[in-house]
Amino acid sequence: MSTVLRIGTRDSALALWQAEKVKALLEANGHQCELVAIKSEGDLDLSTPIYQMGLTGVFTKTLDAALLTHRIDIAVHSLKDVPTILAEGLHIAAVLQRANPFDVLVKGTNPSATTVATGSLRRKAQWLSRHPNDQVIGLRGNVQTRLDKIVGQDLKGGIFAAAGLERLGFDSLETETLDWMLPAPAQGAIAIATLADNTQATERCAQINDRQTELCVTLERAFLNRLEGGCSSPIGAHAQINGDSLHFEGALFSLDGSQSARVARQLPVNQALDQVQSLVTELLENGGHAIMKTLRHGQNS
Predict the structure, then answer these.
(1) In whole angstroms, what is the distance from residue 299 CA to residue 206 CA?
(2) Within 13 Å, how many C-alpha atoms sit on residue 267's CB side?
(3) Is 77 exposed, middle or buried, given 0-12, 13-18 or 19+ CB atoms closer than 10 A?
(4) pTM assigned to the model
(5) CB–CB of 75/63 below 8 Å?
(6) What is the maximum span of the chain, computed from C-alpha positions, in angstroms?
(7) Separation of alpha carbons 231 and 208, rounded Å
(8) pLDDT tens, residue by residue, 147-200
(9) Which residues are part of the catalytic machinery?
(10) How far is CA 36 from the centre of its chain?
(11) SS3 of residue 149 by DSSP
């Protein structure tokens, strides 16, 4: 690896903000860095819902390829976009301290409207679970593009990740925090991927790793992986550490939000990762089996 650490990133405003954050942290530890912006398939297709694009990792595979071909040394991702099984030869070298993990409703011009916009099945299912008489319409694009489609429109609003809005300075928008809505696993966390055998890059990234965030998002992503969920499954999960205890909550929803299966548990921090299968089993026994069967039938029909 060269002396200068080449940081690969998507070229959206949010991705560049995140890459600049990583660059600043690494440079504060004495490492020279440069950004390499790469456009992803997920950025190029702004009309097709993510769950219809036929693959997971639509926002990460271009950067994965750049890592594997040695065009870049590390790749910066929103961890919620990263598949739970990485491409062979890659690993997560660091996770930054997590930002706000929750979703918010960016309000439209009509608070009495019954139409809400989101491109996420997870958000759609949970919104309909709480507001079964509302209509949910699709919403795709980067943060600015989605905001342009919401602000000034005759809608109740659009659902966004709070962290993305805060990072881009949109926290002055009129919003409602949806703290009842379980976030996507690892939402709000920035991850750094590199080649598993790139010892130098791995060691540099380890210096800026946040261990508490790493534990929480590792648990959430393991829960997602055991449920065999991806962009096409409405699954939420959130872990939070308080002292020696970790509170975990996970849920699986039917597409229309009419059914849900949940699990919530307080776990010792040092035993949390050992409880993944137990958490999944409890959720499946609490109605998850029936929902998963319906989801699979819908995907295969």
Answers:
(1) 39
(2) 24
(3) buried
(4) 0.90
(5) yes
(6) 58
(7) 28
(8) 998 877 889 999 999 999 999 999 789 999 999 999 999 999 999 999 999 999
(9) 81
(10) 22
(11) helix
